[in-house]
C-alpha cells in the first residue's frame, strides 16, 4: 500500500481478493489535503496542526475534494417522509410534500382530504353521490341515472310517479312535465278549422295546448280535412284525473272512412287546470293533432270547489254553489256574520286575511270593498281551491296601519279589516280585528329593534335565487336583545354574542356555514393583524372563552367570545365573518372539529364577508361613529315561524 502521488491519505484502502482477480475498493468520505483551498465548496476543512482534512457536508457524498449532492429520496433510510408523502430531493437536503388529495397536518404528516365533506372540492354532478377515497374521490350517479358521476342522465322509465325523463341543457333529468313542456298555440288546431296541409312530423316531447283553438285534444273522431290537415288526429280515450299521474293513451288519425287508420302512442298528465301531452310524430303526412275549441279557458275550466258550472242563455260560467251561502236577508234583519268564514295566514314576510267570495255574495256583497286601517291596503280576488277576497299587510310596524307590540317572549302585529258594500250594507260597519304573534328569536329581535347594529350582504346561488345573510351583535346568550346604534362599548370581562342568519330563497335546502370569523383592530377586513375565532370552519382551540353554538346546521349560526383588545395602541375591535351557503342535499355541512386542524392557504374570499363594528372597550375615548357608518343599515321585512294567530269579528 503506498500513498497517493500528491496527497497523504488517512483513509486506508482495503484490497479484497475475489474470484477471477476482481478487486473492490471502498473509500471513506474524508481525505487529507495540503491546504483548505483544496477542499470542495460543499465540504468542511479541519486543521489540527499535523494534517488538513476535507469532509463533505451532510447531504453530500464524496472524498471532500469532490462532493456531490446525496439523493436522500433515492437512498433507503436517508429520509423520514411518511408513507403518504412525496420525497423531493434538494441540494444538500430534501423536502416532504403532500400529493394531491392530501394535506399536511402538524404531528400527523400527510392526511387524506375528504373532498366530499368540504365545500367546493368535489366536482360531482348535482345528482351524483360523492364517495371519498384515500387521496381521491369518485362520483356515482343515483339509481335510474347513468353516467360517470361527473355527468348523470336519467333513462326512460327510471323516474318516479308523475315524473318523466326530459331534456335539460345538454342532458336528461327527471322532471314534472307540468313544468317541463313546450307550448303549442296554433289556432288552426281547432276541430272547427277547415282543410290544410299541416303535418306534425317534427313533434317529439311534452306539450301543452293554449290559445283560442283549444286547450286539450279532441276525444271523439274528427271529420277528415279538418284542423288544417288531411287526416286529423284525436285522443282515443278519456283524459285522466290529477291523481292518476301519467297515463298512456293512443292518438288515432281519421282517413278513408276509418277513424283510426293510423295511430301513435301518447302520454297524458292532468296538471293544475290544464293537461300536458307527450306526443310522438305521426306515421305519415299530412296528419296533425286536433284540439277541442269548447275547452278554451274562460268557460268552466277555472271553477273552484265552491262554484258550479251553469248555463245562462247558452253561456256557461262559474257560479257560487248554494252550499256556501250564509242564511240571512240582504235587508230587514241582521245577517248571521258569525258564519262568515275567515282565513288568516301569518307568513315570513306578510300577513294575509281572506274572506270567502261566495259567502260574501250570499250576504249581498255584489261589490266588495275591503281594506285595512290604511285604506290604500285594499282587497283583491285570489283564485285557488276556493275563491277568496284577500288583503295583505307587511309584517312590520307602520305599513297599512299595522301596530307592533312586544313583550319579553313575543312580538305581536295587529290590524283591523273593514268590510263594506256601497249598495247593500250601508248601515252595518263590519270590522275584523286580527293579530299574529311570533316568538322572539334573532330575526324577530332584529326586526323589532329601532336601529340594530347589523351587517348584511346578498348572495346569489345559481338556479335557486337571491339570499340575504345578516350578522348582528347580541347582549345575552338568548340572542333576543341586539345592540343598537352605530357602535358598542363593552368591558373586557363582557362576552360578545354574535349571530348570523340567512333569509330568502329555499331555506329548507341550505345551511349557513361560518368558514372564517376573526377580529381586526381596523374596519379593513384584509388587515394583516387578525385574531381568528373560527378558522377553517372550526373554533380556535387555544381560546377557552370561544363557544360555537350553531354552525352549518340550519339557516343561522351563533358563537360567543369574551371581549378582548389587541396588544399595542389599539382601542377598537371589528368583527368579520366569511360565510358559505352549504347545500344540505349534496354536501356535508356540519363541520367535524376534533384534534389539531391545519388550513392550507388561509385565503379568505372577501365577497362573502360580513363586517361589524366598531366595538370599544369601556372607559376608552374613541371616535367611532364615522367608522361604523359604512357597515350598518335598517333591516328589510322577514319573520320566523308562526306561534299564535287570532281573528276577532266586530260589527257596529
UniProtKB/TrEMBL annotation:
Residue span(s) of domain ZP: 345-600
Locations listed in the record: Apical cell membrane; Basolateral cell membrane; Cell projection, Cilium membrane; Secreted
GO CC field: apical plasma membrane; basolateral plasma membrane; ciliary membrane; extracellular region; side of membrane
GO molecular function: calcium ion binding
UniProt entry keywords in alphabetical sequence: Cell membrane, Cell projection, Disulfide bond, EGF-like domain, Glycoprotein, GPI-anchor, Immunity, Innate immunity, Lipoprotein, Membrane, Repeat, Secreted, Signal
Biological process per Gene Ontology, one example term: innate immune response
Topology relative to the membrane: Lipid-anchor; GPI-anchor
Domain EGF-like residue range list: 69-111, 112-153
Keyword Glycoprotein: yes
Signal peptide: 1-33
UniProt-listed Gene3D superfamilies: Laminin, Zona pellucida, ZP-C domain, Zona pellucida, ZP-N domain
Purpose of the protein: Functions in biogenesis and organization of the apical membrane of epithelial cells of the thick ascending limb of Henle's loop (TALH), where it promotes formation of complex filamentous gel-like structure that may play a role in the water barrier permeability. May serve as a receptor for binding and endocytosis of cytokines (IL-1, IL-2) and TNF. Facilitates neutrophil migration across renal epithelia.
Subunit details: Homodimer that then polymerizes into long filaments. The filaments can additionally assemble laterally to form a sheet. The filaments consist of a zigzag-shaped backbone with laterally protruding arms which interact with bacterial adhesin fimH. Two fimH molecules can bind to a single UMOD monomer.
The protein's name: Uromodulin
Organism: Suricata suricatta (Meerkat)
Underlying gene: UMOD
Amino acid at each position: 500500500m503506498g500513498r497517493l502521488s500528491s496527497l497523504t491519505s488517512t483513509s486506508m484502502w482495503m484490497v479484497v481478493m475475489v474470484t477471477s482477480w476482481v478487486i473492490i475498493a471502498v473509500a471513506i468520505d474524508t481525505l487529507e489535503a495540503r491546504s483548505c483551498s483544496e477542499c470542495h465548496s460543499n465540504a468542511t476543512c479541519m486543521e489540527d496542526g499535523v494534517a488538513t482534512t476535507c469532509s463533505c457536508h451532510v447531504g453530500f457524498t464524496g472524498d471532500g475534494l469532490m462532493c456531490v449532492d446525496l439523493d436522500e429520496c433515492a437512498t433507503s433510510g436517508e429520509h423520514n417522509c411518511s408513507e403518504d408523502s412525496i420525497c423531493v430531493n434538494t441540494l444538500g437536503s430534501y423536502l416532504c410534500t403532500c400529493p394531491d388529495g392530501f394535506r399536511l397536518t402538524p404531528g400527523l404528516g400527510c392526511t387524506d382530504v375528504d373532498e366530499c365533506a368540504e365545500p367546493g372540492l368535489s366536482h360531482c354532478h348535482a345528482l351524483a353521490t360523492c364517495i371519498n377515497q384515500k387521496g381521491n374521490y369518485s362520483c356515482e350517479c343515483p339509481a335510474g341515472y347513468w353516467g360517470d358521476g361527473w355527468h348523470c342522465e336519467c333513462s326512460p322509465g327510471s323516474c318516479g310517479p308523475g315524473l318523466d325523463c326530459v331534456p335539460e341543457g345538454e342532458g336528461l333529468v327527471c322532471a314534472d312535465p307540468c313544468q317541463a313542456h313546450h307550448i303549442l298555440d296554433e289556432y288552426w288546431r281547432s276541430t272547427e278549422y277547415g282543410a290544410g296541409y299541416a303535418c306534425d312530423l317534427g313533434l317529439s316531447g311534452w306539450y301543452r295546448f293554449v290559445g283560442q283553438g283549444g286547450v286539450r285534444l279532441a276525444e271523439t273522431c274528427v271529420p277528415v280535412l279538418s284542423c288544417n290537415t288531411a287526416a286529423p288526429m284525436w285522443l282515443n280515450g278519456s283524459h285522466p284525473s290529477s291523481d292518476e299521474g301519467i297515463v298512456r293513451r293512443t292518438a288515432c288519425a281519421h282517413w278513408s272512412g276509418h277513424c283510426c287508420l293510423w295511430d301513435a302512442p301518447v302520454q297524458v298528465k292532468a296538471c293544475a287546470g290544464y293537461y300536458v301531452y307527450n306526443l310522438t310524430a305521426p306515421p305519415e303526412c299530412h296528419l296533425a293533432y286536433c284540439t277541442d275549441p269548447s275547452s278554451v279557458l274562460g268557460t268552466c275550466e277555472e271553477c273552484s270547489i265552491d262554484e258550479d258550472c251553469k248555463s245562462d242563455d247558452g253561456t256557461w260560467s262559474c257560479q257560487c254553489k248554494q252550499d256556501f251561502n250564509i242564511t240571512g236577508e240582504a235587508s230587514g234583519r241582521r245577517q248571521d256574520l258569525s258564519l262568515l268564514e275567515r282565513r288568516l295566514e301569518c307568513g315570513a314576510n306578510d300577513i294575509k286575511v281572506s274572506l270567502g267570495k261566495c259567502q260574501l255574495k250570499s250576504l249581498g256583497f255584489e261589490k266588495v270593498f275591503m281594506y285595512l286601517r290604511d285604506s290604500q291596503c285594499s282587497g283583491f280576488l285570489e283564485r285557488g281551491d276556493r275563491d277568496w277576497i284577500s288583503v295583505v299587510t307587511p309584517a312590520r310596524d307602520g305599513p297599512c296601519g299595522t301596530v307592533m307590540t312586544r313583550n319579553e317572549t313575543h312580538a305581536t302585529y295587529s290590524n283591523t279589516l273593514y268590510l263594506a258594500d256601497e249598495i247593500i250594507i250601508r248601515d252595518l260597519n263590519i270590522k275584523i280585528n286580527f293579530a299574529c304573534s311570533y316568538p322572539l328569536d334573532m330575526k324577530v329581535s332584529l326586526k323589532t329593534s329601532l336601529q340594530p347594529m347589523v351587517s348584511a350582504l346578498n348572495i346569489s346561488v345559481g338556479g335557486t335565487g337571491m339570499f340575504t345573510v345578516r350578522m348582528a351583535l347580541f347582549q345575552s346568550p338568548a340572542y333576543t336583545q341586539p345592540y343598537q346604534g352605530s357602535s358598542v362599548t363593552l368591558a373586557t370581562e363582557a362576552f360578545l354574542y354574535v349571530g348570523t342568519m340567512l333569509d330568502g330563497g329555499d331555506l329548507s335546502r341550505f345551511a349557513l356555514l361560518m368558514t372564517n370569523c376573526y377580529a381586526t383592530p381596523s374596519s379593513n377586513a384584509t388587515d394583516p393583524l387578525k385574531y381568528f375565532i373560527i378558522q377553517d370552519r372550526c373554533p380556535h382551540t387555544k381560546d377557552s372563552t370561544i363557544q360555537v353554538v350553531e354552525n352549518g346546521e340550519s339557516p343561522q349560526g351563533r358563537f360567543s367570545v369574551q371581549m378582548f383588545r389587541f396588544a399595542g395602541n389599539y382601542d377598537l375591535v371589528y368583527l368579520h365573518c366569511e360565510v358559505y351557503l352549504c347545500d344540505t342535499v349534496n354536501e356535508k355541512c356540519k363541520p367535524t372539529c376534533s384534534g389539531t386542524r391545519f388550513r392550507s392557504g388561509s385565503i379568505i374570499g372577501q365577497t362573502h364577508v360580513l363586517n361589524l363594528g366598531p366595538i370599544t372597550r369601556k372607559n376608552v375615548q374613541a371616535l367611532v361613529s364615522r367608522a361604523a357608518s359604512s357597515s350598518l343599515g335598517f333591516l328589510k321585512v322577514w319573520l320566523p315561524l308562526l306561534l299564535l294567530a287570532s281573528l276577532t269579528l266586530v260589527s257596529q
